[in-house]
């Protein structure tokens, strides 16, 4: 496979994708290939467009030029994002990669808007498009080059899990559609005098604007704080639970500081009767090993629990069964009983599934659960804290 050949030729130690230098090399290679292919396509299409007097082909040519500029910005983004942490940016500069993608997205939109105007002008003032076989063949060649570029960007983007390169792959695939429309309009010019060239140019420009808008949306999500990758979430949870004496986890939060640069915190439930120094050593070991293995910065908070036997276990099991009546409650944690005599406080946190809570307020959720507990155990007062997922 040619993609694999390029990677093996230009990237040393290319299997070590966790290494920042290797990942940076992948990004630069993807950007350089993007520049070369798009400059070639721009030259081909611009020549064909002027020769045939086709606004649709010229629009598509400048779309490729903007893609070349996008690839340059991608390279710059990877270089700046790989800068080490400093006093002003203790978690590094990884988010620069998102900003570079955002600049690219705005450039794509501006190109599309400009050529919407040009296409409308061509519809209002049509010109004859001259069809020739060789320029048509060159357009077909450009389509196959874009198909390969999309495949390459997808290959590299998946290899290093880069949102920027995955977006470039989607953008290149979109260009395959737009170039195909242009080729069809060029071919159709032999059979009709209708200004189909301007209409196709309008469709292509509209698609470019839509692609730019989609890229802006995808790039803003990590900057605004989107939910973390489910694969990373499951890995963190599974690895924390694999350590001895950690019996449960909750309140996992992942902060994204750029591709491959995350800070995460999680609460780990431990039996309350374990020696504090012993469990502290286990927690320290878990933080250190998981951080190194997953290339994140993990902080684990200890939550001692006592639900092994007796009254606490019975009450805990009853509450677990009770919350199954409410589909918008996912789980409970930090369960304990405080007080003596006839009146005691049940203290616990409820984790809500906010997408299923419908129109209920937090207070109404607490009142519903409290009322049900009172029916079972009048002597218990509920002290409930509501949690929401950050995943």
From TrEMBL:
Classification via Gene3D superfamilies: Cation efflux protein transmembrane domain (1.20.1510.10), Cation efflux protein, cytoplasmic domain (3.30.70.1350)
Alphabetical UniProt keywords: Membrane, Transmembrane, Transmembrane helix, Transport
Gene Ontology terms, MF aspect: monoatomic cation transmembrane transporter activity
Pfam families xref list: Cation_efflux, ZT_dimer
Superkingdom, taxonomy of origin: Bacteria
Domain Cation efflux protein transmembrane intervals: 33-224
One annotated Gene Ontology cellular component of this protein: membrane
Residues annotated as transmembrane: 26-44, 98-116, 128-149, 170-192, 198-216
Location in the cell: Membrane
Key word Transport present: yes
InterPro entries referenced in this protein's UniProt entry, alphabetically: Cation_efflux, Cation_efflux_CTD, Cation_efflux_CTD_sf, Cation_efflux_TM, Cation_efflux_TMD_sf, CDF_Transporter
Topology with respect to the bilayer: Multi-pass membrane protein
Main location: membrane
Domain Cation efflux protein cytoplasmic: 228-304
Family: Belongs to the cation diffusion facilitator (CDF) transporter (TC 2.A.4) family.
The protein's name: Cation diffusion facilitator family transporter
Species assigned in the record: Clostridium uliginosum
Upper lineage: Bacteria, Bacillati, Bacillota, Clostridia, Eubacteriales
